[in-house]
Write a structure and sequence with these properties.
Blueprint: E1 2-7, E2 10-16, H1 23-40, H2 48-53, H3 64-79, E3 87-88, E4 91-92, H4 95-112, E5 118-122, E6 125-129, E7 138-144, E8 147-157, E9 161-166, E10 187-194, H5 197-209, H6 214-220, E11 225-230, E12 235-237
Antiparallel strand pairs: 1-2, 2-5, 3-4, 5-6, 6-9, 7-8, 9-10, 10-11, 11-12
Helix pairs in contact: 1-4, 4-5, 5-6
Length: about 250
């Protein structure tokens, strides 16, 4: 069963290859994403993060979900030498972590319901588990940031997460905390493969903020691989990236 719906300002596709999947199983996952959007959307004035940014609720009123995410953001900031920073222009914006984290949580929900083979894609950040409907590894493509209709790399993944940070869709929305007013123009796309999409997403965001040296940061991370495209269209990738290329 495969479905795509528009939520959180993006298309979210869920495909479950297990034969015993029911519509209610898929609905539960979309309900979860709706809940996350109501908590963390910076565009909705009624969301919890907006209420925090508008000083309507205090720290002792934060939900447990919010406390977890803000703690993970602080942890990620420390792990990335400050390049992952959700505080910008006097507001909190944990979007660079929430998407991957929520996809991982949705994946956990599917596993708790007994499913072993599935694919969740939210705005290009993806978690795969097991095999596809043909009993093969899931196929994932990396888009050309200069031509969204072109795939520059086709990957074969099982039980992995993959996330891309870049300027192709949302423009200059990631910033370097050390130079907050300067646009990141030396690279246009950075894709990270990790054990799960939460890890891949948060480190892709931080690595992109580092610019050209971001790929070196991913190279040094154990269990991660990366693929960076610079402003000239030249790709640089980590030493173990080729093992994921679809033959």
């Amino acid at each position: 069963m495969k479905q795509t719906r528009s939520l959180m300002g993006m298309h979210i596709t869920i495909e479950v290859a297990d034969k015993n999947v029911k519509q209610k199983d898929i609905d539960k996952i979309y309900d979860y994403f709706t809940y996350i959007d109501e908590k963390f959307s910076t565009f909705k004035t009624t969301s919890e993060i907006s209420l925090i940014n508008n000083n309507i609720i205090e720290k002792d009123q934060y939900s447990s979900c919010m406390k977890i995410v803000l703690s993970l953001c602080e942890e990620t900031k420390n792990q990335t030498n400050g390049y992952f920073d959700i505080f910008h222009n006097g507001k909190l914006d944990p979007s660079g972590l929430v998407k991957g984290w929520s996809i991982k949580k949705a994946s956990d929900l599917l596993k708790k319901r007994g499913f072993k083979n599935f694919y969740i894609d939210a705005g290009g950040d993806i978690q795969v588990a097991g095999k596809n409907g043909k009993g093969e590894s899931w196929t994932v493509g990396i888009r050309n940031p200069f031509n969204s209709k072109e795939i520059v790399k086709v990957l074969s993944l099982e039980n992995k997460g993959i996330a891309t940070s870049g300027t192709e869709i949302r423009g200059q929305h990631i910033y370097n905390p050390r130079k907050p007013t300067a646009e990141i123009k030396d690279i246009v796309s950075l894709t990270v493969i990790g054990l799960n999409v939460y890890e891949a997403d948060r480190f892709a965001t931080a690595a992109f903020a580092m610019g050209e040296k971001g790929i070196n940061f991913i190279e040094k991370l154990s269990g991660f691989e990366g693929y960076m495209i610079d402003k000239k269209g030249i790709a640089t990738y980590t030493s173990g990236f080729d093992k994921y290329k679809k033959l």
